[in-house]
Amino acid sequence: MKSCSNIGGRCRRHHGNESESNGGILSRRHRHRGGGRKSARIEEADRRILMVGNPNVGKSALFNRLTGSYVVVSNYPGTTVALSRGRMRHGGLDYAVVDTPGMYTVYPITEEERVTRRMLMEDPQDVILHVVDAKNLSRMLPFTLQLVEAGLPVILVLNIMDEAQQLGLKIDTETLQERLGIPVVATVSISGKGMKALKDAIASYAPRFTRLQIDYGLAIEKAAREISHLMPETTFSHRALALLALQEDKDVLRLLSTHGSDKAQDVFSTLNRLKKGLEHPVGYYLTLSRQERSDRILEPAITWGESTASKIGPRLDSLLISPWTGVPILLAVLYFGFYRFVGGFGAGTVVDFLEGHLFEEYFVPFVNGWTVRLIPWKALQDLIAMDYGVLTLGVRYAVALVMPIVGAFFIIFSVVEDSGYLPRLSLLIDRIFKKIGLSGRAVIPMTLGFGCGTMATMVTRTLESVRERVIATILLALAIPCSAQLGVIFGLASDSPGVIITWIGTVSLVFLFIGYLTARILPGQTPDFFMELPPLRMPRLANVWIKTSSRMRWYFMEILPLFLLASVLIWAGNITGLFEKALWLLSFPSRWIGLPPEAAQAFLFGFFRRDYGVAGLYDIHQSGALTPNQLAVATITLTLFLPCIAQFLVMLKERGWRMATLVAAFVFPFAFVVGGVVNWALNALGIKL
């Protein structure tokens, strides 16, 4: 683990090939109520609130307290970065609230930070809630100073005050408020403490002028004054934009170039003169000055008493991060959390009840019977019911087979996420990920991939370099099974440990081999990784319920229609004969890897959705058509098979048509090659699983 000594709280490495954000900057002349880009605005309300802050400061929990729940999660226009949008009612006024991705400063590096900065700069807000972790206030306050210097309507929210008090930290909010010139409110978002005071502060907030301005030294101040008048009109002050331009912020420099080449040339001339007279980059001096000012502001407002915090947390940290103890703990989490709960309970107990009892004994016969009675046309009967009907196949797969497994996964993921284990896991596997061209940061999209590859492909935007995003996208498309695949495979092989071991071993080797190979082929350096560890917490039932129910709503809104569409396409394929021809073509590679011809159906279903394909494999196995060896080959091949349509479309949007097409063209034959090798090895060694 690398330590971070960077003043301002974030260790950063700037990459020259960093992708550039798209989109322009909104002019101040559009700051009236009807201005701005309509697509970027949430529904009309009396006032607009934007929440910003570092990751792991409790913004999402605070958002839930303000709005009551996750109302809608949508992407920022032109990106796949998700924003949580909700409504708050207080004091007779209606507020539109937006929770943004985490960011550390107004100088962005990742795509998520760019989106948040664009919202700050483009969309006029009535209130900006800067949420900080109270016990790390000295490190996070420089970001507050940036927001205040930019002239934004800021309220500082000191969240997680309970943990700060346990450490013996006492913060005088009145003194801090007086020295900053902005409202300061202390909260505990998980318990709801301080919510009324925060809502009152929002309702009574009025724009005010603050004289807070940091001295960055004679050379930088002179350069900032020289170019301030050249800055375009945005929600940021001219001085704030000038400081960003001096840091060579790509968005600001691009914006200047669109407002006239002369202005851009003047800025570059000033910047070049400034750089010649400085020993370090401009950002170094800005960060140092902000931290020094932050320390002076906090000195009279903070006192330390005796700590009452438990000492178990640091000991657990060392156990979770160390390879000697962290790996066994990880295996225990995977076994009890995923294998036993998702595979055993979700794919076993719940699926057996829903699919084997309710649907097979009641729902399917009922739908088939009434469809035959009410609809005389055979083709229409097949669309609604029978073997491949929208209700008897699409709804059955989505509700009875996949939903319980996805729901079980979301419960476990919410518990793991709420506990603070994921950042520890990032540090634990960082060394291994370095070998395949990734950093520990990639554990987030990889872990999400076990829930939904589509969602995980979107989250690759959080990785810092294009090279990392490409490697992560390839591995997600190839060797990361979604929760439905994972659960059904665990359920199918629950009584055959050899099948599970063969499947895990083969897929893991493919993951590492392809990652290593891709990292050697793609140019670029292995990324550095620095991680701030949030404290370990006991997951709260209410938080787990909110997160799980929110994700399940997403599942029904996004995934269920795709299952129904897949059923319609299969029906159309049957009517036209295309389905039969496709099955005939897929039967050849299926037989080549030692599977019965019926297995071609699972692969064909996999074209529509990965989980749809594994659900088809469930039906084939239930009929007794697969031996344990064949089941191992089938699950391996299907796991490595093409990504589903939704994931492919997101990959198309994120990586471009050329990369998406190359990945699909590679994955399809590669999956069958690996399946064939496994089948040959099992037979050659005489292994009976």
Radius of gyration: 28 Å
Mean pLDDT over the full residue set = 78
- Pick out the low-confidence regions: 1-42, 70-80
Give the strand line-up of the largest sheet: 2-3-4-1-5-6-8
Number of strands: 9
- What structural class do the secondary elements suggest? alpha/beta
- Portion in beta strands: 5-15%
SS summary, helix count = 29
What is the number of domains?
Answer: 3
Q: Could you give the distance between the termini?
A: 41 Å
Shape: elongated
Oligomer: single chain
How would you briefly describe this protein structure?
This protein is α/β, with parallel strands linked by helices. It has three domains: 43-203, Rossmann fold (3-Layer(aba) Sandwich); 218-304, Helix Hairpins (Orthogonal Bundle), CATH 1.10.287.1770; 321-684, no CATH class. The protein has helices at residues 59-67, 111-122, 137-149, 161-166, 173-180, 195-203, 218-228, 238-246, 250-258, 261-276, 282-298, 312-321, 323-374, 378-384, 390-419, 421-435, 443-449, 453-459, 466-479, 483-492, 497-521, 541-558, 560-576, 578-592, 599-608, 610-622, 628-640, 645-655, 657-684, and strands spanning 47-52, 72-75, 82-90, 93-99, 127-133, 154-159, 169-171, 184-186, 302-304.
